[in-house]
Amino acid sequence: MISLNLEILRRNSPEESPVWKSYAYQTEDENANIAAALTDLNQTLENPVRWECSCLQKKCGACAMIINHRPRLACDVPLKEFVRAGSVKLEPLRKFPVIADLIVDRSILFQNLKTMQLWFAEEAKTNGSQTAYEASRCLQCGCCLEICPNFYAGGEFAGMAAMTLTARLLTALPESQKKEIFKAYRKHIYEGCGKSLACRDVCPAGIEIDKLLVHSNAVAVWKRKYRHEK
Amino acid sequence: MQNVIIIGAGLAGLSAAVTLAKENISCALISLQNSERAQSVLAEGGINAALNTMGENDTVQNHYEDTLRGGVYLADPNAVQNLTGHAPEIVRWLENLGVPFNMTDSDIMLRNFGGQKKKRTAYARSSTGKIIMTALIDEVRKYETAGLVQRFAHHNFIQLLLENQNCTGVRIQNVYTKQVTDFKGIVLLCSGGMNGIFPGRTTGTTQNSGDVTATVFRQGVKLGNLEMLQYHPTTIGISGKRCLITEAARGEGGRLYIIRNQQKWYFMEEKYPELKNLMPRDVVAREMYFVRRELGGEIFLDMTELPEIAWEKKLSDLRQEILHYLAVDPKTTPVPVREGIHYFMGGIDTDVLHRTNIKNLYAAGECTCQYHGANRLGGNSMLGALYGGRKAAETIMHTADFKSEENQSYTGKIFPPASPVLIQEISQILLSGLGIVRNQNDLQTALRELEMLSQKKVYSFYEQNRLLLAKAMLLSALERKESRGAHYREDYPEKNEIFRKTAIAECSPELNIRISFRPIPEKRSDA
Ligand SMILES: Cc1cc2nc3c(=O)[nH]c(=O)nc-3n(C[C@H](O)[C@H](O)[C@H](O)COP(=O)(O)OP(=O)(O)OC[C@H]3O[C@@H](n4cnc5c(N)ncnc54)[C@H](O)[C@@H]3O)c2cc1C
Ligand code: SF4
Ligand code: SF4
Ligand code: FES
């Protein structure tokens, strides 16, 4: 039996000032996670806690929120972790505009990808590249942006969520796109990143951000030729 | 303003958007959440195409035959011909979008998958859906920037706009601002499977609530083969859902056993010496049900004999997942598995061109009843979604007559969502009738209970829609007095040629439900 308090920072709309609310929660399921707790809790509330989820198995990034001061996925975090402390704090991500309760609008993340023109302009084969695979796994959850000291919505720096997607493109970038993509990479990623790698530690997908970064810097900034690894 | 409104931004919706954009036709791409959160990212095992890169003399004809046989001849052969014939081209297209498929020394690697005798499944380790989605989302971004695709994420489908059996658009609500807009244009539904009808019991996402299918049904759209639910044989129970163990685990050599007389009994290998653990999903799931009913206890998936290279190159993500959720290492310990609802072969009824019974309304992807008949083969649904999205877009492009009407904001009343309590009640009733093994008695009892629930009080619009859809599901299963594919009736254990037909469910304006059986089209030589 698990029993603890869910402390949730709540507001009904962006205009409202947020207030902490506390909810006692119990479950028989020893493996229950934060996502399950929120689903259960909502069945009992007149004004359910608003949050986003989809896959419930840490593969879609929908449920990113701040859990005891760290950006994490609600469906990735077992309640067990907090039983001793007796409570856990849930807040919306802070780097994005809040919509209500735990929902934030992460549109800026997708806007940045458009600004950087991240796509293949022509046909491009990645030939089973391991780098392309690793980079393609990015959930666009925003946890890395949340923790990053240099990222803020509306700034030039697009953060690691954009680096991952660029890294895929760099494994097979057509000649015609090199100039523009290299330039965008320098401006929106390379120049803004202090390389402290706090982002790598929070990435819920466990993406090897450091490796991808070294790799992408080599290709986009130092103009080394991309070498296919086996 | 847009020409086409696509509801859903998974593989089917994205594929349609790209196809339209290439021809300079604009679309509004509407989805509850961003594409990165669509169920399509969960697909693991792979996508089928007779690329014949493994020296096994595979052909499109083989793929065609396996698909029809897997679906126990309930799929439209003309549609399946189109699907399998275009499969190689679809996978090559993905390769050219930069999808890093696993490779042999020179070409795309293919693996074995259930119900198929040749290696035909292209894959990217154990995250094929996610990796394809990333490439496809990038591709769509190109057209977003060019203004041809306008994205509306966090927008909810409310209902179709209909004028005399003609679809003129769709009512949509912005979930963040609550604003409601009537979008005008041709409508293409790509809204995925009906997971939300069985909350917590499926391997899919919570986002696909089933409300779109339920609502359009109430509005007069015909649905087909609703009784055909695919139970995936290997799922594990995790917090809030069933988590899939990809069929690739068996494709790479995983074996199912149950304990009999204190010994491991590899029942699939004994009962089906040719395809063994890789029989079609319906067969595996049913055998699991029977051996468990007979012997009790759990069934285990034994992956301990898989070669190191398979874990390293093909199933690394799967191993991490099992370690994370069950705290057991599948490399050394067999994993207890159960059947879970995994795919909806039934859904919105369309013809080969992806038209519904309502003019200017089209559908593609898992929300439709197309390609898979009574049972979908692993690796055929991503293909069905990608090809279906494209085919629907082509039909629209070639036949639709585009009007340019402005979208209008709507300020009238919006119905509240269905109550979670009612959703659970309906789900419980359905599960009691629509298990892996069914019979008349259970189905009639379930229908009676549903009737009682329906009479209990006055329900809101979306609640009524769910009750109607649930009733149609039970009636379809009751009326199909045979066993075929995913639909197994203990009281009618054989298949019956009389029922080699599509079970069509219709809801009248007075909200009466009628089930009828429509013959499967003959194969045309020009298909
Ligand atoms: C765990 C798992 C593994 C799988 N593995 C494989 C595999 O290996 N091979 C294979 O071929 N298939 C596999 N499948 C099946 C396959 O992934 C799906 O059938 C396919 O991706 C469906 O694509 P789709 O575009 O039709 O729908 P989805 O990807 O489900 O997209 C549905 C879209 O509709 C939107 N939507 C839903 N409701 C609303 C609403 N009310 N308002 C607005 N928008 C709405 C959603 O936001 C979403 O964008 C797997 C499925 C699962 C769950
Ligand atoms: S390395 Fe540091 S500065 Fe760079 S993205 Fe990560 S957290 Fe931000
Ligand atoms: S890099 Fe990791 S933390 Fe950042 S968006 Fe991608 S998955 Fe999330
Ligand atoms: S719900 Fe998909 S990552 Fe949590």
Brief summary:
The complex is a heterodimer of chains A (230) and B (527). Chain A has helices at 34-44, 80-83, 107-115, 130-136, 143-147, 160-170, 178-188, 198-202, 209-221, and strands spanning 2-10, 19-27, 64-67, 70-73, 87-91, 98-100, 103-104. Chain A has 230 residues and is an alpha+beta fold.
Structural description of this entry:
- The complex is a heterodimer of chains A (230) and B (527).
- Helices cover 33% and strands 16% of the residues of chain A.
- Chain A is of the alpha+beta class and 230 residues long.
- Chain A folds into two domains: 2-104, Ubiquitin-like (UB roll); 107-221, Orthogonal Bundle (Fumarate Reductase Iron-sulfur Protein, Chain B, domain 2).
- In chain A, strands 2-1-5-3-4 form a five-stranded mixed β-sheet. In chain A, strands 6-7 form a two-stranded antiparallel ribbon.
- The model of chain A has no long low-confidence stretch (mean pLDDT 95).
- Chain B is an alpha+beta fold and 527 residues long.
- Chain B contains 14 helices and 23 strands.
- In chain B, helix 1 runs parallel beside helix 4 (128-145) and helix 12 (420-433) packs antiparallel against helix 13 (440-456).
- Chain B is globular, with a radius of gyration of 22 Å.
- Chain B starts with a strand and ends in an 8-residue tail after the last strand.
- The model of chain B has no long low-confidence stretch (mean pLDDT 95).
- Chains A and B meet through helix 1, helix 3, helix 4 and helix 6 of A and helix 4 and helix 10 of B.
- The complex binds flavin-adenine dinucleotide, iron/sulfur cluster (2 copies) and FE2/S2 (inorganic) cluster.
- One iron/sulfur cluster is lined by residues 147-148, 150, 159-160, 193-199 of chain A.
